[in-house]
Structure formats: structure tokens, C-alpha cells
Amino acid sequence: MQPGDQPDMSQLLQQAQQMQQQLMAAQAEIAATEVTGSAGNGLVVATVTGSGEVTGITIDPKVVDPEDVETLQDLIVGALADASRAAGEVASQKLGPLAGLGGGGMPGLPGF
């Protein structure tokens, strides 16, 4: 394209639609991916989807102490935080260059 020439709008729209389809496919793949996080050297393991939905918690019976519920609570929070971090990494890897388009659309192109 030469300076001063108008961009080919149909080509731009086609590229935008392709990017939107790639983004939607990546988001679906992320949502279907399960990741785990752990705390206390694996005493508590949390499983979450790439979209952040908690699908499971595994607690080693050794850590269950009725006299010390706070430690168990801390381990659960730690495992969930670790799983959330892992889900974020999966999203970054799967989206790659499309990461900046999620939710905000394409700057300058309304509706995308």
C-alpha cells in the first residue's frame, strides 16, 4: 500500500474475522484445559480449568487436624493460588499474540 492510499476495508475485515475466530478457538481450548496447583509439597492439590473453575480438591489425610484448621485452610488457599497461576500461564501460551485482543476487541474496529 502506498502512502495516501486507502486500506482495503474488505481485506481488513476478513483479517479481523480470522483473528476473532482464532481467539474464540483459543479461548475454548483454554476453558477445556485442566491444570493443577499444590501446596505443602502436594498435601493439598487443587484442579481448575483454564477459565478458573475449580473442579477438584485433594487433601492428604495427614494434614487433617481438627485442632489446626487454619493450616489446612492456608494450604487450600495456596493450592488454589498455584492452580490459578498455572491457568494463567496456559492462557498466555495458548493465546500468544492474540492475548491483547481478549475482551477489548480490535482497537479502531468497532464490534471486533
UniProtKB/TrEMBL annotation:
<dbReference type="GO" id="GO:0043590">
    <property type="term" value="C:bacterial nucleoid"/>
</dbReference>
<protein>
    <recommendedName>
        <fullName>Nucleoid-associated protein HQ605_12140</fullName>
    </recommendedName>
</protein>
<keyword id="KW-0963">Cytoplasm</keyword>
<comment type="similarity">
    <text>Belongs to the YbaB/EbfC family.</text>
</comment>
<comment type="function">
    <text>Binds to DNA and alters its conformation. May be involved in regulation of gene expression, nucleoid organization and DNA protection.</text>
</comment>
<dbReference type="GO" id="GO:0005829">
    <property type="term" value="C:cytosol"/>
</dbReference>
<dbReference type="InterPro" id="IPR004401">
    <property type="entry name" value="YbaB/EbfC"/>
</dbReference>
<feature type="coiled-coil region">
    <location>
        <begin position="9"/>
        <end position="36"/>
    </location>
</feature>
<dbReference type="Pfam" id="PF02575">
    <property type="entry name" value="YbaB_DNA_bd"/>
</dbReference>
<dbReference type="GO" id="GO:0003677">
    <property type="term" value="F:DNA binding"/>
</dbReference>
<keyword id="KW-0175">Coiled coil</keyword>
<keyword id="KW-0238">DNA-binding</keyword>
<comment type="subunit">
    <text>Homodimer.</text>
</comment>
<dbReference type="InterPro" id="IPR036894">
    <property type="entry name" value="YbaB-like_sf"/>
</dbReference>
